[in-house]
Amino acid sequence: MTSSTKAAIVGIGESRVGSVPDRSALQLQADAAQAALADAGLKMSDIDGLLTTPVRVEHWNMPCGVVAHHLGVKAKFLSTVDLAGASGCGMIHQAAMAVASGQCETVLCVAGQNLLSHGSRAKAVKSMAEGGSAHPQFEVPYGPLVPSLYALVAQRHMHEYGTTPEQLADVAVTIRKHASLNPNAHKRELITVEDVLKSRMITSPLHIFDCAIVSDGAAAAIVTSAARARDLKAKPVHLLGQGYGLRHSHIGDTELTTTGAVDSGRDAFRTAGLTPADVDVAQIYDCFTITVIVELEDLGFCKKGEGGAFVENGRIGLGGELPITTHGGLLSGGHPGLGGGFFHVIEAVRQVRGEAGARQVKDAEVALVHGNGGVISIHCTLLLGV
Amino acid sequence: MSEVIDRPVPVPDAATGPYWAAAQEGRLVMPRCADCGKYHFYPHPLCPHCSSAKLEWTAVSGRGTLYSYTVVHRAPSPAFAAEVPYVVAVVELAEGPRLMSNLAGCAPEAASIGMPLQVAFRKLSESVTLPVFKPQ
């Protein structure tokens, strides 16, 4: 028996997302956890496992212990998952493993923080540039922003494959349109390709609308045994397959246009016995517009170098050939740090349950979720289905 | 001198001290494996090609080409505000390894992938010198 037949996602929840200055990181996580419990029809006393991620706004020694204690979880299993932006995907797989092993029966996965309201936006930018993905000795002294590290990828991709700023902008426009259909998204006003190209140049070729936003918010999901899932009110969503990938730790010493998503995607499809053609909706990690183009190539939805053309003409929008990131992602939906990629998981569950409302992909049965951490460094891909 | 104090500077450690000491002397060095002969960068405790621990800091030519770049228009912190727009580059050395750097002696609009480059040294303070790259 594989973890996919032993465990299921039975509850999902989100806090308010956007500017939420009246909630701390733990309060946001509690809001998301309570929403997920209500969705599942469970109580906190039913939870016996907890997974979470580190936060940036506070120093938590052993984050899983801090969160479990403050949410009142009596944990038989707990751990802090740190795969940077891939943590959301990683938590689901690791929860399924914990349940399949018999160590615990029902795991709460929760992540998020008040990244926007904790301090100024300028403080968040400086903190991410100096304490984030750039090498402290060999990169930070040269003055890259976090977006600069992805701009290096974009510039090289444009050089090798002729990808254009308009194609990058297509990604931002499509994902903003999806956010406009999500009542809990942070940025919902529609934008055009021209708006993106006229927006402030941050680090060439990336404009501000090519970059993720900074938000407050948290998300939660509950994973339990397939036996218990049958007695609960929500339609169980199964983990059909998963994969991990890592090809570098820092962007300055690597190949820029092919990533560990090749490996995570291949293993996810292999473990699920599926192919990219079986995917009805793909929640692709979208910290920058270029990230989406490279990931679509590496996951096998198109050939290397064809990602720019793939995102044109509405192909990745609702009603298109492969709708992606239907909640609005990190570019528009919300990005509260390591919890950001977890919203992609929540949206995938909604889609395969058929509960995505105005942004529902018709007859969605198989959803792919992809998380990327560092600078296209560490990858985790999930395939989910009912 | 507050700009230099605020600017993030490398803090050499046991693994990187020889690199920064060489930069102070105007030399670019890279870890090279005594077993397989290959270079790598950034420094690993074990050779990424053959897992050997016999690594030696070896002087390299300082010649390379521009592998990718970005022109930074928004400074990451006030320490860089006076320098925008500036080029953050990835340089591919003739010996193989790649590294991040800045372009010097080159207008941002003149940067072009593939352009030949030569290392130069920018002294930030008495104790810190950064390798940067100029057009050949």
Order of helices and strands of chain A: HEHEHEHEHHHHEEEHEHEHHHHEE
Oligomeric status: heterodimer
Q: What class would the helix/strand composition of chain B place it in?
A: mainly beta
> Within the largest sheet of chain A, what's the order of strands?
3-2-4-7-1-8-11-10-9
Using the coordinates above, name the CATH class of the domain at 3-118 and 215-229 in chain A. Answer: Alpha Beta
Biggest sheet of chain B: strands side by side, in what order?
Answer: 5-4-3-6-7
Helix count, DSSP H or I runs of 4 or more residues of chain A: 14
Low-confidence stretches of chain B: none
Mean pLDDT of chain B: 94
Give an account of the 3D structure.
The complex is a heterodimer of chains A (386) and B (136). Chain A is 36% helix and 18% strand. Chain A is built from 14 helices and eleven strands. In chain A, helix 4 (87-101) crosses helix 14 (342-353). With 136 residues, chain B is mainly β. In chain B, the strands form two sheets. A five-stranded antiparallel β-sheet of chain B has the order 5-4-3-6-7. A two-stranded antiparallel sheet of chain B has the order 1-2. The radius of gyration of chain B is 16 Å and the shape is globular. The mean pLDDT of chain B is 94. Chain A binds chain B through residues 125-126, 129-130, 135-145, 148, 151-153, 155-156, 159, 200-206, 250-254, 256, and chain B through 7-13, 16, 20, 40-42, 67-77, 80, 83, 86, 88, 90, 97-102, 113, 124, 130.
Brief overview:
The complex is a heterodimer of chains A (386) and B (136). With 386 residues, chain A is of the alpha/beta class.
Summarize the helices and strands and which ones pair or pack.
The complex is a heterodimer of chains A (386) and B (136).
Chain A: H1 3-6, E1 7-14, H2 25-40, E2 49-52, H3 63-71, E3 77-80, H4 87-101, E4 106-114, H5 121-131, H6 146-161, H7 165-180, H8 193-198, E5 201-203, E6 206-207, E7 216-225, H9 226-229, E8 237-246, H10 261-272, E9 281-284, H11 289-298, H12 307-310, H13 329-333, H14 342-353, E10 366-373, E11 378-385
Parallel strand pairs in A: 2-3, 2-4, 9-10
Antiparallel strand pairs in A: 1-7, 1-8, 4-7, 5-6, 8-11, 10-11
Helix pairs in contact in A: 4-14, 7-11
Chain B: H1 2-6, H2 17-24, E1 29-33, E2 55-59, E3 63-72, E4 86-93, E5 98-102, E6 116-123, E7 129-135
Antiparallel strand pairs in B: 1-2, 3-4, 3-6, 4-5, 6-7
